[in-house]
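Workshop exercise sheet. Pairs work together: one partner reads the sequence aloud, the other fills in the structure field after running the prediction. Swap roles for the next sheet.
Pair: D.N. / O.F.
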Amino acid sequence: MGYAEKITLGVEPDGRPRGETIITDSSGEGKPLKAHLHRGDFGLSWSVEDYGEPSGGETGVCIASLDYYKGQLRVLVWGDVNQDKPTAIIPLDGAKTELHKKS
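Structure field:
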């Protein structure tokens, strides 16, 4: 699995915090990518260099978001830059700590 280097904290133009890091390719074959973590209106989202719809900014737009909706934590993924709505919504109910099976 690739890894993210140290996260550098910054601020968006509107004053919201932003994190920036470099993601390495787990196979060692691809170039490292710059990624940004953003605090949005409804959760955390991230954008990655060369992915997402170009927005005129340096980071493009969100390709995935951690969302909390109606008491459910979920990941929203935009896997197709031509779609306005997420292409996948992954509920994280099964990832709760209380469900962990002890061995």
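Discussion prompt: Residues 8-98 form one domain. What would you look at next?
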